[in-house]
């Protein structure tokens, strides 16, 4: 089973991660500064923790697949490496949902453009 992220070239993966890390830093600096000026600096650590839980699957899942501890059975079904004759299954992470939904949106928009083109021809 090929996940759409793993079909990217090495350069595309690096560009994706650069954009993701830049967005993560930019949002956290902006919200942290905003909360600091509002006198709620303690909440900036809370926001950082929450945003880190959103960011983490984008690093954990690909590294787990790369080192062999995760195996995809479908785009939204991951299994851990067998331990003690047990198979531990996980539903997709935010990482998987991001790529699955992006793929579906692209297919729908292509289908819509194709149908519009056919309707204009008649």
Descriptive notes:
This protein has 122 residues and is mostly helical. The protein is 66% helix and 10% strand. The protein has four helices and three strands; from the N terminus they run αααβββα. It has helices at 10-37, 41-55, 57-66, 94-121; strands at 70-74, 77-80, 89-91. A three-stranded antiparallel sheet has the order 1-2-3. α1 runs antiparallel to α2. It is elongated and about 55 Å long. The N and C termini lie far apart (40 Å). Mean pLDDT is 82; it is low at 113-122.
| Helix/sheet category | mainly alpha
Strand order of the largest sheet: 1-2-3
Overall, the morphology is elongated
Strand content: 5-15%
Helix content: 55-70%
User: In angstroms, what is the radius of gyration?
Assistant: 19 Å
The ordered string of helix (H) and strand (E) elements is: HHHEEEH
Total E-strand runs? 3
Which segments are poorly predicted (pLDDT under 50) over 5 or more consecutive residues? 113-122
- Count of separate DSSP helical elements: 4
The CA-CA distance between the termini, in Å, is 40 Å
By oligomeric state, this entry counts as single chain
The overall pLDDT, averaged over residues, is 82
The biggest beta sheet reads: 3 strands, antiparallel
Topology:
Elements: H1 10-37, H2 41-55, H3 57-66, E1 70-74, E2 77-80, E3 89-91, H4 94-121
Antiparallel strand pairs: 1-2, 2-3
Compact description:
The chain has 122 residues and is mainly alpha-helical. The chain has helices at residues 10-37, 41-55, 57-66, 94-121; strands at residues 70-74, 77-80, 89-91.
């Amino acid at each position: 089973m090929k996940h759409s992220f793993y079909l990217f070239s090495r350069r595309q993966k690096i560009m994706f991660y650069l954009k993701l890390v830049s967005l993560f830093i930019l949002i956290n600096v902006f919200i942290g500064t905003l909360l600091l000026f509002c006198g709620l600096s303690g909440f900036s650590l809370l926001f950082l923790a929450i945003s880190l839980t959103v960011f983490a699957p984008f690093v954990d899942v690909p590294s787990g697949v790369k080192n062999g501890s995760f195996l995809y059975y479908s785009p939204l079904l991951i299994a851990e490496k067998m331990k003690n004759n047990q198979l531990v299954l996980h539903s997709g992470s935010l990482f998987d949902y991001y790529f699955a939904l992006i793929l579906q949106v692209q297919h729908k928009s292509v289908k819509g453009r194709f149908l519009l083109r056919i309707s204009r021809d008649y």
